[in-house]
Amino acid sequence: MKETASAKKSDSFKDSRTSATSSSSVQRSLSFSDSAEDAQPPIAVPQPQRDHDMNSWNCSQHQKLWMRTEMQDLGLWPGSRPVRNLGNAISLWRHPPQPELIDTVAELPSPNFFQLHPFFIWKPENEIMSRLKNKYNLPCLHGCPHPQVVSAGVGRPRVIVGTSGQYYILSSRLCCKSCRKNWFADSPRWLEKLPRRFTNLLPAFLTYKKAICKSVMDELRRTGKSPTDMANQVNELMHLKYERAHLAYLQAIESVWDAEAGVHGQKTIGQFIRKSNTPYPFSSYEDPNGWCGISVSGFYLTDCLLEEYKRQEPALSRLLQGTFGQVFRSDHTRKVARKVTLASGIMSSYAIMNEHWLIVSWVMVQSESERSLEPMYQGMAKRYNDAGVEKAGFHWVDR
């Protein structure tokens, strides 16, 4: 029995070592893969094998292994043991370990730990979001009258561009037991069916083909920059983060070499244990097996901005149409309308503001007579009547 157990342990160790060798040196020093010593017996949950396949994920190999390890530690990976968190005090954000603090024993620091990006877990069907759901029954994407939405696999990561760098949103794959159809949790059609408290948690705006961090859109609106200028700023920030990570990797190697040379006193013996003293290359910014960096263009940001405007257009229209007042101030302005030409050659801008200097109505007219303004006043009266608001009692005009 001892020989059999030893043989099984040896085979398991070989399998773990084989998978670690195929990825990179980061797994040789601190393996992300499961080992026979620390692995826990999984719970039998029948899942299709394709749901466990990470080959379709658009990220580096060490990014895949680290995300899988984080999901296993939280009990969110299919087949992993459930983990109890007291008070459900957990964050959906997962940040990489500090690479400078990782002890690689005798090996030189690996660039893979310096090339990891944060990711956000999006699993609305899981128990970790039970407090947010509060017995709310998740809807089916296809409109089933009695939906039963459950998890159907790991899902996929989606890269997002933010003002502080890139990150991923790891969305689960969902399935409705009633209609037996699958979809991803980041589907825009399904997100529109959820209450606002769910989508408020998402750090990005998602469409079918594009995704952008809310911080980028907020910065674009705040600064008033053009999409091209904003794209250049974001690309510069992401390349700056890459250069800083590269510099931190070189400084970590320099620190090891200084310790082995006895610069700070006693020498270390790491150089006599490892087989090679040549550090691994950090690779380029776009390397899919390294940093896996992306770039955005002005056209990309323009499309994202237009998609967000279409989504918020009803709310913006209600906000603009909901501007009222009790004291009006109106004025004709010809300077604004100089570039507008008509056959008559006459064009004026007529604006009405309330007591808070908010524009209630703004029209372009061909004549400054009161008759040309009657359609506008009729529209304003209808707006007040429809809203049940008392009409203005004072009106100041410029003539």
UniProtKB/TrEMBL annotation:
<dbReference type="Pfam" id="PF20499">
    <property type="entry name" value="DUF6729"/>
</dbReference>
<feature type="compositionally biased region" description="Basic and acidic residues">
    <location>
        <begin position="1"/>
        <end position="17"/>
    </location>
</feature>
<protein>
    <recommendedName>
        <fullName>DUF6729 domain-containing protein</fullName>
    </recommendedName>
</protein>
<feature type="domain" description="DUF6729">
    <location>
        <begin position="85"/>
        <end position="260"/>
    </location>
</feature>
<feature type="region of interest" description="Disordered">
    <location>
        <begin position="1"/>
        <end position="56"/>
    </location>
</feature>
<dbReference type="InterPro" id="IPR046616">
    <property type="entry name" value="DUF6729"/>
</dbReference>
<feature type="compositionally biased region" description="Low complexity">
    <location>
        <begin position="18"/>
        <end position="34"/>
    </location>
</feature>
